[in-house]
Structures are given as structure tokens and as C-alpha cells.
């Protein structure tokens, strides 16, 4: 998770240069908030080709646009050099590029805006060109490219009316817990902290306020939002050799209401942990370290790479933890005295998977979850999205292949597939999904509107559930818009024909 952050403006403009499909481009550095490695991206069904999906950037949901696709070029598999360039503004967007090259300062007179149209190749929109070393660099007009590629739409957050908490589905749902950790380097060794314990990752500030007489592990304090944040050196806490610098990035860990920043040499990545490859610290080593080592577990990653997973609460001395506990007790007592009488409303959603993407439906819209029947009756001249009909406890139920409905490739796998029976104000239908993951509880403030760049898919995915602690983004489906108007009319006609048939067959 390499990050680049811009600094103040200068007299001559600065540009961030990058490569895409072998070409060298640039964007103004003042428009860039940071550069990062490609995170997990939630693909939006039926979205414009240029929209790769949505990504979670420290709690904010950002649309990710492919520069290759914006320029009308074929996509390529991501490489270790691939990066996201996050652009700031009223509607932030991230650009996926093949490689970030350099940060350059160019004199005004060296930028040739008059040659923009002449230098532009098919699909390119340019603001100008300049020469850097032996290359000609094209300054992309990103706003114009986005305008051409996406239909601007006015969106509003339309949360599902889940009402009171409904009963859980009749079948047993296996909750899938995915352990994720943030890995980082300290003195040449790889460590990790649970992602759920980390509130944010920030660049270490250039200037720190030193606290006289503090522990040698305390690098200093900085202003963080509305509070003061102490920064502690992981090298010191782990008794590792000191370095000339103080470390590039700080992992902000929350101990209930108390925040502490732990400074690492370099953040590596966020990875999903296979719990079967986690091992406790060998007893002999734990005994030699007094049984209270900061290392909680050892993870055997790919290529026999060993990652030491730290326990956040063991990084600090006992007296420091007591001070934190006393502070927590005071804060909690104050909050209890001033807490509102009304309890926080929790919403419930059924989470399911299609391919590698996670979707959610309001639990009140779900009647049940069942195994996909072996026999599905095909209907002649049925629309492509309609897989057929089944008899579900005496009721004829239309079945929709949700992969096909979202223009996803078909899957030959049958293990784990489930039928999610959904009810709307006009219809009841079964949705075939790859697997059902969990019944999720979340608060309303974790639901945000889908970015405007979603195109036609915005009709179906109007909101997303942003699970900041685990880094997951769930696409929240609106049951009333799962079908287009023509498809709803087809089901209406199907229902009428079914009624006529049943009346004719009565004795």
C-alpha cells in the first residue's frame, strides 16, 4: 500500500506521470490526493466498461475507472507495478494505471497547449504536452474523459425500508468470517496487525511535538482530527535496531475510545488470512520470552513466507494499559450519562456471493433461502433472464439466474448454490446465487449512496454497505428495481397466464 501525497503548490506546475498501454501520460499533481496499490475492487454489475468497480479507501467508497478503457484500449492483467491514482475534488475518483513513473516540475512555457489536438491519438483527450527526458508526455483531460465515458446522474441515497427486524431465514446460514491483516515491515522483518484493530493508515508527519520525559518508544504527538495522537515506534516496542528515519507510515489502532499510532518502516499490503495456516508461537519460544510476547500467531503465507501477527494490546506495557483502561472507563461513564434514550437502530441484510463479488438484500425482502432444486421447468419463449419455474411447496415460483441477469459469465459449479426467495410489492421470485454468506447487522451510517459513475446499474445498486473495519464493500440491491419495467410486465403476464391455466384445470 504505497502512498503518495501531494504538497503545496509552486510557481511552476507539477505533474504526476504514469504509463498506460505503453504510453506516457500526466495529470496535474495538485489534483492528486494519493497513489496506492490496487485494493480489492467490488465490481458493479452492468456498469459502463470504463468503471472497474468500487474500492474502499479508509472508509470512503470511491469509483475506480480504468485509464485503458477510458482511452478505448483493451484491458490487461494487473501487475505489481499497477497503481491507483486517487483524484481529489467534490466527487473523488481513482484511476487505475499500469505504472506510476515520476513527479516532475515543468515550466509554464514548456507546456504546449496548442499542440493538444494534433498530438492526441484516437480516444485521447488532452490539455497539452511537454517533453520529459527523451519522452513526449501527454497531459490527459481527465474530466472530459470521464464526461464522455459516463452519463452524469443525480443520485440520492435511498435506503431500503427494512422496518422492524424480521425473523431469520428458515434455513441455517453458515456465517463466513474472513480474517484480514495489514502487513508491514519493521527492521527488515514482516509483521501484521488485524485489520479490524486498525482505524486508519496515514503518512508519518514531518513534524512531531516531542514530549519531554516520555518513554523512548514515544516519537511524539500530532493533531489527529479533534484529538491528540501519540505516535510510538514499532522498532522500539519490538526491541529491534533503531533506524535513521522514524518510519514512513503509522497504523492508527483504537483501544476502545483511545487512539494510538504505531509507526512502521513501510506498509506492505492487506491480505486475507487462511485460518488453517495460522500457528501459535512455539511454546519453547514463548517461555523464553516470558509467555507475554507481542507476537500472537505466526502465519505461513505463500512461498513459505512467515508473517508474525502482533497482538495490539501486548505492544504496550502494563502500566500504560492501565492508564488507557482508566481513560476508557472515564469516557464510557461520561457517554452513558449523556447517551440518548433511544437505542441505535441496527439493520439486517442477507449477504450472498456472485463470482467474487458480494451483494446484500434487506432481510425483510427475503422470504427464505433454499437449495437450488434439481429440476427447473423450462418455459418456451421465456425471456433470457428467466431460468424457468419450480414448485415450491405448492406455489409455482419463477426462477431467475442472477448471474445471467447481471450479464456475468455462467458458472458450471453447483456446490454451494442457493435459491434466495425474494418478495417485492408485485412479485415473488427465486434468485439463483453462487452462495449465501451471512446475515449481516449494520448501522444506517454504514450505508452510503453509490457513486454517480455507476451508469445504468445505478437503478439496481443505489447504495453500498461500507464495512470499514474489514475493508469490505457490499453492493446493496434494491428489490423493487431488480427487474426492468419490461421484465416486470413479463412476470405480470406470466402470473395472469398461470391463473387462467389453474382455473381451466379445476374439476
Automatic annotation (TrEMBL):
The lineage of its organism: Bacteria, Pseudomonadati, Pseudomonadota, Alphaproteobacteria, Hyphomicrobiales. Keywords: Cytoplasm. It holds the Pfam family CheW. The keyword Cytoplasm applies. It is found in: Cytoplasm. InterPro entries: CheW, CheW-like_dom_sf, CheW-lke_dom. It comes from Bradyrhizobium aeschynomenes. Residues 12-151, 178-321, 346-488 form the CheW-like domain. This is Chemotaxis protein CheW. The keyword DNA damage does not apply. Transmembrane segments: none annotated. SUPFAM superfamilies: CheW-like.
Amino acid at each position: 500500500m504505497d502512498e503518495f501525497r501531494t504538497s503545496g503548490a509552486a510557481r511552476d506546475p507539477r505533474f504526476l506521470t504514469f504509463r498506460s498501454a505503453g504510453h506516457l501520460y500526466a495529470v496535474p499533481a495538485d489534483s492528486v490526493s494519493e497513489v496506492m496499490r490496487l485494493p480489492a475492487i467490488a465490481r458493479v454489475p452492468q456498469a459502463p466498461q470504463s468503471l472497474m468497480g468500487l474500492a474502499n479507501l479508509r472508509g470512503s467508497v470511491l469509483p475506480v475507472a480504468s485509464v485503458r478503457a477510458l482511452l478505448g484500449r483493451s484491458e490487461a492483467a494487473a501487475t505489481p507495478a499497477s497503481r491507483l491514482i486517487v483524484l481529489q475534488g467534490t466527487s473523488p475518483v481513482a484511476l487505475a494505471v499500469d505504472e506510476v513513473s515520476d513527479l516532475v516540475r515543468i515550466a509554464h512555457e514548456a507546456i504546449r497547449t496548442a499542440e493538444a489536438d494534433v498530438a492526441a491519438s484516437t480516444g485521447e483527450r488532452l490539455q497539452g504536452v511537454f517533453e520529459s527526458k527523451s519522452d513526449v508526455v501527454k497531459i490527459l483531460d481527465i474530466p472530459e474523459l470521464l464526461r464522455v465515458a459516463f452519463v452524469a446522474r443525480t443520485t440520492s441515497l435511498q435506503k431500503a425500508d427494512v422496518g422492524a427486524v424480521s425473523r431469520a431465514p428458515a434455513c441455517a446460514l453458515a456465517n463466513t468470517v474472513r480474517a484480514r491483516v495489514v502487513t508491514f515491515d519493521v527492521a527488515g522483518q514482516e509483521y501484521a496487525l488485524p485489520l479490524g484493530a486498525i482505524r486508519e493508515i496515514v503518512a508519518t508527519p514531518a513534524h512531531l511535538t516531542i514530549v519531554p520525559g516520555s518513554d523512548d518508544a514515544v516519537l511524539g504527538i500530532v493533531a489527529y482530527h479533534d484529538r491528540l495522537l501519540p505516535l510510538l515506534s514499532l522498532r522500539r516496542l519490538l526491541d529491534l535496531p533503531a533506524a535513521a528515519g522514524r518510519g514512513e507510515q503509522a497504523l492508527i489502532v483504537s483501544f476502545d475510545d483511545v487512539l494510538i499510532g504505531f509507526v512502521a518502516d513501510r506498509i506492505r499490503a492487506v491480505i486475507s488470512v487462511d485460518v488453517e495456516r495460522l500457528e501459535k508461537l512455539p511454546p519453547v519460544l514463548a517461555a523464553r520470552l516470558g509467555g507475554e510476547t507481542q507476537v500472537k500467531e505466526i502465519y505461513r503465507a505463500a512461498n513459505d513466507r512467515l508473517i508474525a501477527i502482533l497482538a495490539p494490546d501486548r505492544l504496550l506495557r502494563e502500566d500504560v494499559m492501565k492508564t488507557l483502561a482508566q481513560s476508557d472507563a472515564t469516557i464510557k461513564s461520561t457517554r452513558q450519562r449523556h447517551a440518548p434514550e433511544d437505542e441505535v437502530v441496527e439493520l439486517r441484510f442477507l449477504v450472498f456471493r456472485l463470482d467474487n463479488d458480494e451483494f446484500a438484500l434487506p432481510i425483510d425482502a427475503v422470504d427464505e433461502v433454499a437449495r437450488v432444486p434439481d429440476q427447473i421447468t423450462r418455459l418456451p419463449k421465456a425471456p433470457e433472464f428467466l431460468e424457468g419455474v419450480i414448485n415450491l411447496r405448492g406455489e409455482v415460483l419463477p426462477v431467475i439466474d442472477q448471474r445471467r441477469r447481471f450479464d456475468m459469465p455462467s458458472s458450471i459449479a453447483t456446490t454451494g448454490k442457493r435459491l434466495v426467495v425474494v418478495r417485492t410489492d408485485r412479485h415473488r421470485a427465486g434468485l439463483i446465487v453462487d452462495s449465501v454468506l451471512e446475515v449481516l447487522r449494520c448501522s444506517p451510517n454504514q450505508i452510503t449512496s453509490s457513486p454517480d459513475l455507476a451508469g445504468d446499474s445505478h437503478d439496481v445498486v443505489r447504495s453500498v454497505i461500507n464495512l470499514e473495519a474489514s475493508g469490505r464493500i457490499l453492493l446493496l440491491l434494491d428489490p423493487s428495481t431488480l427487474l426492468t419495467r419490461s421484465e416486470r410486465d413479463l412476470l405480470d403476464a406470466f402470473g395472469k397466464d398461470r391463473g387462467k391455466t389453474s382455473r381451466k384445470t379445476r374439476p
